[in-house]
TrEMBL record:
Domain Acetyl-CoA hydrolase/transferase C-terminal: 283-433
Protein name: Acetyl-CoA hydrolase/transferase family protein
SUPFAM superfamilies, per the entry: NagB/RpiA/CoA transferase-like (SSF100950)
Keyword line: Hydrolase
Entry-linked InterPro entries: AcetylCoA_hyd_C (IPR026888), AcetylCoA_hyd_C_sf (IPR038460), ActCoA_hydro (IPR046433), NagB/RpiA_transferase-like (IPR037171)
Upper classification of the organism: Bacteria, Pseudomonadati, Pseudomonadota, Alphaproteobacteria, Sphingomonadales
Provenance organism: Sphingobium rhizovicinum
Length: 441
């Protein structure tokens, strides 16, 4: 049977497709942009009608408008909702449950490093159904996973029930991110716009941090950037550099602007020279247009892209990640705010370790010195949440007041270095706390 015959044999409606998922299923969805809105809505309708029982659904950064039906609070007692990394919809659900003695059910969190998610889903959880958005089929009968190779490829090839939403808006991306129609259980067609994430406005503090980091970047360095105003400021400050490379978890509009300007040519990379490598992409329509059928960019699974031993094979890797809090010893809480889960472990520690293991590499944790409009210091005596990056792994810390290298420093030296880049309004209190903690004598 030809690929076209297989395609037409497996094409059906969204309701028919999700009817193939059995009671008790463990369902994973595509990450972020690849979250399939039509399949998710049909799945929600089936759960609400009592047609699917005792199932679990595992999501990561689902777009709120698309995910709202299946992650609705009124379904939380009928389908177990588990997040691999909290975003806006999960934070809203958590806030809605309140703080009373008997709060309503919320979306659970699975703590896991990003590069371990494929194995976690396939080996430990045993996901048996996967729904995701893909590009239209090519002449070889293959769909591209488009913006999201991440854990999708491993789950799609694990033998799980594979149900895809074919969307012409999903870019056809090169790399190790193809699935063949013969592996697909069912497919539907749905032409809708992809979710877009507008750039956050930058301010003077972002630009100050960006300039400090850009001064640390050598020509020929290999970049990993997160999303947000600070990474965008770093990218803007790098426009005078040359021969940079990209090996990143997330491909952003800021990084694309460096490719388009000729600043990034990937000529100095040991792995995939000439190509910008990522595991998922998220941003605006120009980004999606840029990566479509573009051999200069390639998507690969997260257990490859984020594996520290793979990251380290490129020289001069410079990794930039954000944190919510850092204690006086250099430990980072990058996922917990005011007693609630805010995001997740993600790939921060993957790149902190991979970048430092790279020859000439630098791992940077960057943050504003304060939060809550200057009322709260991000450098604190004790963390209020879990340790996302241990103090033993933290390398360079940057705020708008400068930077500090944690490597080779004692606890007392670390505390002094961090206090020196804290906001002046909090330095005296931090010094007092350092003495109380018996870090500084």
């Amino acid at each position: 049977m030809t690929s076209q015959h297989l395609y037409h044999a497996r094409r059906m409606t969204a309701d028919q497709a999700v009817a193939l998922i059995p009671d008790g299923a463990k369902i994973a969805t595509g990450l972020a942009v690849s979250f399939p809105p039509a399949l998710a809505a049909a799945l929600a309708d089936r759960v609400r009608a009592g047609g699917l029982r005792d199932a679990s659904i595992y999501t990561m950064l689902p777009p709120a408008p698309s995910a709202a039906p299946i992650l609705s609070p009124d379904l939380a007692d009928r389908i177990r909702q588990v997040s691999l990394f909290h975003g806006g919809i999960e934070r809203a659900a958590d806030a809605a449950r309140g703080d009373g003695p008997s709060p309503s059910p919320s979306i659970d969190l699975l703590p896991v490093q990003f590069h371990q998610i494929p194995r976690t889903l396939t080996d430990h959880i045993g996901v048996d159904s996967f729904i995701t958005t893909v590009s239209p089929m090519d002449a070889n009968g293959c769909f591209s996973l488009g913006t999201d190779a991440d854990y999708a490829l491993a789950v799609a090839r694990s033998g799980a029930r594979l149900i895809v939403e074919v969307n012409p808006a999903m870019p056809y991306v090169h790399g190790d991110c193809m699935i063949h129609v013969s592996d697909v259980t069912a497919l539907i067609e749905n032409h809708v716009s992809l979710c877009q994430v507008p750039a956050l406005p930058r301010n003077a503090t972002d630009d100050a941090i960006g300039a400090i980091i850009a001064n640390m970047v050598e020509d020929g360095a290999c970049l990993q950037m997160g999303i947000g105003a600070v990474p965008d400021a770093v990218c803007a400050a790098l426009m005078g550099h040359r021969h940079l490379g990209i090996h990143t978890e997330l491909l952003t509009p800021g990084l694309v602007s460096l490719i388009q300007a000729g600043v990034v040519d990937n000529s100095a990379k040991a792995l995939h020279p000439g190509q910008s490598v990522f595991t998922f992409a998220m941003g605006d329509q120009p980004l999606y247009d840029f990566i479509h059928d573009n051999p200069a960019v390639a998507a690969h699974p997260v257990d490859y892209v984020n594996a520290p031993q793979i990251i380290a094979q490129n020289d001069r890797v410079l990794s930039v990640n954000a944190t919510i809090q850092m204690d006086l010893s250099g430990a980072c809480n990058s996922e917990h705010v005011n007693g609630r889960q805010y995001s997740g472990t993600g790939g921060q520690l993957d790149f902190v370790r991979g970048a430092y293991a790279s020859k000439g590499g630098r791992s940077i944790i960057a943050c504003h010195s304060t939060a809550a409009k200057g009322k709260v210091s991000r450098i604190v005596p004790w963390l209020d949440g879990p340790v996302t990056t241990p103090r033993t792994d933290t390398h360079i810390v940057v705020t708008e007041f400068g930077w500090a290298d944690m490597k080779g420093k004692s606890l007392a030296e670390r505390a002094r270095a961090l206090i020196a880049i804290a906001h002046p309004d909090f330095c005296e209190g931090l010094e007092r706390a350092a003495h109380e903690r018996r870090i500084m004598m």
